[in-house]
User: Fold these one by one.
Assistant:
Number 1:
Amino acid sequence: MSSRFPPRRSSDDGWNVIFPAGFVWGSATSAYQIEGATGEDGRGESIWDRFAKTPGRIRDGTSGDVACDHYHRWREDVALMKELGHRAYRFSVAWPRVVPQGRGAVNDKGLDFYSRLVDALLEAGIAPYVTLYHWDLPQALQDEGGWTHRATAKAFADYAFAVARRLGDRVVHWITHNEPWCASMLSHQLGEHAPGLRDGRAAVEASHHLLLSHGLAVPAIRAACPGAQIGITLNLSPAVPASSSAADAAAARRYDGWMNRWFLDPVFRGEYPADMVRGYTRKGWLPGDLGRLVLPGDMKAIAAPSDFLGVNYYNRAVVRSDRVAEEDNRPRSVVVDPGAEHTDIGWEVYPEGLLQTLLRVHLEYRPAKIFITENGASYSDGPDGHGRIADTRRVRFLRDHLVAAARAIDLGVPLAGYFAWSLLDNYEWSHGYAQRFGLTWVDYATQKRTPKDSALYFRKVIAENAVE
Ligand code: FCB
């Protein structure tokens, strides 16, 4: 592969750091994290509106009611992307803006907003990558059982069709779901995200219906938009045993099954991993008769041929066997290297994990194409006396992860693009506004946006199609 991209420059240890021609560069956001305007133009309530207002759920007690006020400032934000040299933008559509009650009447005003945004992006030379579900389920569907309820999958496919019919004349790239692990396990088993349940069985049911909804949405999007390129975004983490003991190795394997294989295997192989099916059945999270949850045809639908896989990569899990934690499938993550660096949200900085993840997915699952649909770091560095934001740790984070991405390409991974998380500091879910992942600083009192040093660094990378 490297012969196709002759090294003009190289990283410290001599690897190629030039990206292939046509590599897609951009940033990502999601609706609830940036839009605000939760009560405007007929938007319905989402499970995140409800969750964020439930006392005790969000660390700083805030909600996405205003967030980055992007719903009103989208023109300015598109201009910012253009100024920062971005060539693509991954954003999500809020289901409750488009179908306020989850199913039934479509709200044209909601679609109008995204239609205007798409036009502005295209005019600025920025390719839209649309995510259809980034966690903001209409509350009306939650009231019927949400993702634990099979009918939600069908409602999602109908919503996907409505969006694709309106935007499909201009949008080529579609992502059905963002991180179904978060929308099922983190939110139904661990209770940390909306709807905040702690119920393993509900989590597994939700995971199946989320995956099924992906499978039903793929043909629905293709029907509305024949040239569509469609994929799903998974958050993947390599699971590494904390020691050479057999118990730790087994724990790491289970963690990998819970986090990675439970989603990769159905999408690419049309089956759930047998070891996890056994484990979940033993726990009572799956019915003894699997056929009560997984109906004939479901697995074939889930494995509907797609055009790419989106990979969100943040960190790895170093796993130690622990009986108590194992009961809720939550093996402990331990830091092996006491010198390891962590970002402000407490996640280990581990760029090699991106290379490991990309190679593993390529070798074991063979997606036709991969996009890194999110990668980024929470650092709270703010403006100095001159208004400059010298976020040198984020610059280094970006650089090291981009070197890992370039290396993956050299090793044959069909990696086609990279989206930095995030364009803007924004509402970081249960952490509220305290965690800042943006390339751009947002002053929440004035809504002023200021590009950080990392944004300027990223602009240079994009312009040169190479890492310095
Ligand atoms: C991912 C989410 C994204 C953001 C980043 C930090 O799990 O997809 O919305 O919260 O983490």
Number 2:
Amino acid sequence: MTVIPKSHPRYQSLLIREKLVKGFDAGLVAKEGLLAHGRGEAFDYLLGETTSKSAQKALKAAAASMILSKNPVISVNGNVAALCPKEIVKLANIVQAKIEVNLFYANQKRKQSIVATLKKCGAKQVLGTDPKSSRRLAGIDSARRIVDKDGIFAADLVLVPLEDGDRTMALRKAKKKIITFDLNPLSRTAQTAHISIIDNVVRGINELAQLCKKYSTKNEAELKKIVKNFDNKKNLEANILEIKSNLNRRLRIA
Ligand code: PTJ
């Protein structure tokens, strides 16, 4: 295993990369997941590798929506299982959400490894592996159309970190409220979801869990107000402007 010295200027980023590689070696991450991570890293670089103001806003709207939801589900893929399995279980416990494994690159063995990882982190139940419970989402051809009848199929809200655009659209058509973590503000998923948190899931997921805990004591009217005041399109524009001003700052330094 590569030892990354703490003094390395890109220590955090290299540590996250290492988690992905370990997750790949452990059979959790698809090969394509490593490529997807590289794309994410590039956008994170442009974002300044911090949770921006617009991401904070989206996190607040996401937390309020999750508390208000009657039947929330967290969808987990290979990358998420490698990067933040403990945090996923923690969040699910706070908001009483179900957890479902749902893969783009379908593979039963990988699914089982992801379930085992989540259970090791304390998940009591992980949906998405029982063929008798499977249902099809309309309007999508990828493996992600297969969902659990008690999970995503029945959910009113689905948190889909690192999602592909087709399923985001299909889930929206199925009248689910969609929250995503995506480092690319221009992706189809970011543009289609109701709430797009443009942040590294590794940074944002803890913040989301903490906000959910904090908001669990707020009354319904207060929570609804937070949700109503959030405009995803406007927030994505603000995010793109944040990237632009980061780049401008770099130009001045050069
Ligand atoms: O495990 P599977 O089979 O379900 O496959 C998972 C991947 C991620 C490979 C699959 O869903 C995929 O191909 O995704 P895309 O379409 O490449 O989209 C991934 C999005 O996530 C891109 O917009 C990336 O910028 C973004 N992304 C990558 N790493 C992170 C991220 N967003 C937030 N946090 C990250 N760490």
Number 3:
Amino acid sequence: MEERILMNQVGYRPGDVKHAVLKDGVYDTFKVVDEAGKTVLEGKVTGPVHNENAGEDNYLADFSKVSEPGKYYLIAGDVKSEAICVGENVYQDLLYDITRFFYLQRCGCEIPAELGGKFAHKSCHDTKARIYGTDTFIDVNGGWHDAGDYGRYVAPAAMTVAQLLLAYQNSEKLRKLELNIPESGRALPDVLSEIKYELDWMLKMQDRVTGQVYHKVTCASFPGFVMPEYETEELIISPVSVTATATFAASLAMASSFYEDYNEAFSKTLLDAAKKAYGALAGMSMPGGFKNPSDIVTGEYGDPVDRDELYWAAAALYQATGMEQYRKDFEALAKEQIMHGYGWEDVATYGNLAYLSAQYPKDEALVEAIKKDMTALADKYLEIGKKDSYECCLDEYKWGSNLYLAEIGSHLYDAYALTGNEEYLKAAWEQFHYLMGKNPTGYCYVTGYGYKAPVYPHHRPSVAADSPMPGMLVGGPDCGLHDPDAVEHCTGKPAAKCYIDVLGSYSTNEVTIYWNSALIYLMLMLK
Ligand code: G3I
Ligand code: 9MR
Ligand code: ZN
């Protein structure tokens, strides 16, 4: 049975705008009652409006005026909603779980029972790995498992690190967040300790001599649904790639400043590795992007367009060092074409943000042009959202649509931070509400949250433990129907409903580190 009243299932803070979407009926008025049944608000719905992506006719109820902390129900026509929580801290547990997820994704170490609970496991993937096509084995222990599989891939790792760092920088909640991890209690804040776990691994993925960076380390194929220590096939380090080398340079340059005050040596190691990787890029060319060797079938993360990775790397190194060469490189690329994007394959916005916040001389005309590009894009998203009854700003539902939606939210937030225009901020929050349940499928797309959450995520530890790990954002609707279960269950469905909570649907129901980090980055709005 589909939900008929769609809203953020986790709740709202007292002052938040609160919009509900109603469907499968004809509605006129609505009311909100408290736990005792007392009416606290009455109003008229608006609509109906047709939603093409969802194939629905919707009515809308604005209950923003309900601002006293408490538990409420919305009633319209013959339908009553589930409980709606209003409170200042309704998102605190969510923020904890989606961030602690990274600890539970750690590779190359034991997760002890007292910290991992059901997801405790012995050390995994801790043998030396073969460099593809050679008899050389090296240590690349550590890092986070990428997703529902146990691969470790540099490009998505770089983007995850960037998003977590930006969130950390802009949100006091994250700076103060205690994660109950082995490093807790030390001088280094927990979120930075967790990110360091990934950075330590990334450093091992760089070839010491050339400075180039290996694309990924995985087994030759995906394992069954077992805990990570039972994936014991040979670990293979795939060849180097431009995507990996450039995003490595960018994210490590960016990270170096965050560790300066806590661990100068580590900060310097990061910056030196970033410079070396950047220097190595000149001698690399990979038309068509990384391609899996024929005997490796794990995630490819192939990206034929390198321009945005180079753009981000140059800007991040300029921000970190103020060196003329990096400035020249970035400005040359940006003058040719300003780019944007925050995904694993499109990373230029990190470049724009780095250039805008660099404390060194800049081309002022270029600064203005970048700002203009950012607001023009935000305006485009606003327009899409205004036409959609769920206020969703996506115009395409592809693999990982929830990531693209979170990114759009972050872009709107960035545009708000740049201009102070509250329209952008409001729209950014609606993207968050979408992910939490105000969407056509009626799922709160984070495991363990809301009254209708995914329970069969494509995530090996969750299957092995027979319980979904809480705090994971699933990929969401993908109208490309990229797996047999999606084909079976979603053929003929409208785009925004091509989602299925079954284990086999890796194209709609998997989880990844960079989908979670995108949600954390969006949640920096909590401040
Ligand atoms: O970019 C094109 C777009 O231009 C086009 O309009 C659209 C139409 O379908 O397709 C877009 O490309 C899609 C791309 O994702 C966009 O992000 C591809 O079809 C789609 O196959 C591709 O999916 C990627 C998937 O791997 C398969 O390669 C996902 O982004 C990526 O998140 C996912 O990553 C996997 C790893 O390989 C392995 N680990 C798990 C992880 C998550 O599922
Ligand atoms: O589990 C794998 C998941 O992490 C990947 O995103 C996905 C696409 O590359 O592949 C999954 O593995 C499936 C494989 O592609 C085909 N056989 C079944 C595997 C498990 O569902
Ligand atoms: Zn592992």
